[in-house]
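TA notes, week 10

Several of you asked for a full example with nothing omitted. So below is the full record: structure tokens for the whole chain, then the designed sequence directly under it. When grading your own attempts, check the secondary structure regions first.
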């Protein structure tokens, strides 16, 4: 059984743990600051520190590390480990940097480092280890700062097929006055929050959800609108793919009881079940072990 260092790199935080090839956590998940708006050296040093800490933990437990898997948001050259992110205020300073090479030089570890899109890892993790393992064809969406998506069928991630968008990504699909990512995300919810005095003072989507559950009319209205937008966008992709289920993940989906009704009702017309994740993010880390399946 192999054991891997797994990292899920986000815009505000990085989650890490030791995971096994049979889909289990060897150690608890630890969360670190991402420092994503810092300079190149700070970002790379931070990633190296996280990996070193996890490696030392494995050494303490007398565990040999088989490989290092890293989920990273795009755009990114995943085969070569080069970040192509720019002009979004996060990770701009490592644009064009070969992170794979830099980390190998900094760490001096004789282990393979493999990269994958974070949304792809989430989809793989949910469909192999999570709620999707009971279905043959699944569409996954991960709603966080942006919206990630993935399609999974017959035990494999589907990236190129007539019935899925390019790369399996829906974030850049035109919608209203922009693209889907600008609306169906925490960013989109925060924009709606700023439109009203009673919600503009609320600091996060989590707090907005608490306010909605406490009966704040405007907070309830925002989640209702978010649910309507989801029902306008998501069904076309799930139906075209012939999905048996749609899996909801990501931090925003922790509040899915406040907005999933229109989407659930629409997809029910096509016998597609809406299934919230039970972990929302942890399966992304577990999927890092799958990057080493030959």
């Amino acid at each position: 059984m192999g054991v891997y260092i797994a990292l899920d790199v986000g815009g505000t935080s990085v989650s890490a743990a030791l995971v096994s090839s049979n889909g289990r956590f060897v150690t608890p998940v630890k969360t670190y600051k991402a420092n994503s708006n810092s300079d190149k050296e700070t970002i790379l040093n931070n990633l190296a520190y996280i990996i070193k800490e996890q490696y030392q933990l494995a050494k303490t437990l007398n565990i040999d590390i088989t490989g290092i898997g890293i989920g990273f948001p795009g755009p990114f050259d995943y085969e070569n480990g080069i970040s192509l992110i720019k002009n979004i205020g996060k990770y701009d300073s490592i644009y064009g940097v070969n992170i794979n090479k830099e980390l190998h030089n900094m760490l001096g570890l004789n282990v393979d480092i493999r990269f994958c899109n974070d949304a792809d890892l989430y989809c793989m993790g949910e469909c192999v280890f999570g709620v999707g393992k009971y279905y043959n064809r699944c569409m996954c969406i991960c709603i966080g700062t942006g919206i990630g998506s993935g399609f999974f069928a017959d035990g494999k991630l589907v990236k190129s097929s007539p019935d899925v968008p390019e790369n399996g990504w829906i974030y850049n699909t035109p919608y209203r006055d922009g693209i889907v990512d600008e609306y169906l995300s925490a960013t989109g919810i925060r924009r709606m929050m700023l439109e009203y005095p009673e919600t503009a003072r609320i600091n996060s989507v989590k707090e907005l959800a608490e306010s909605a559950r406490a009966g704040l009319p405007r907070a309830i209205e925002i989640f209702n609108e978010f649910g309507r937008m989801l029902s306008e966008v998501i069904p076309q992709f799930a139906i075209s793919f012939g999905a048996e289920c749609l899996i909801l993940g990501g931090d925003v989906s922790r509040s899915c009881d406040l907005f999933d009704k229109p989407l659930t009702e629409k997809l029910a017309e096509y016998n597609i079940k809406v299934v919230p994740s039970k972990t929302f993010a942890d399966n992304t880390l577990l999927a890092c072990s799958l990057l080493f399946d030959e």
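The first helix runs from residue 40 to 60. Use that as a sanity check on your answer.
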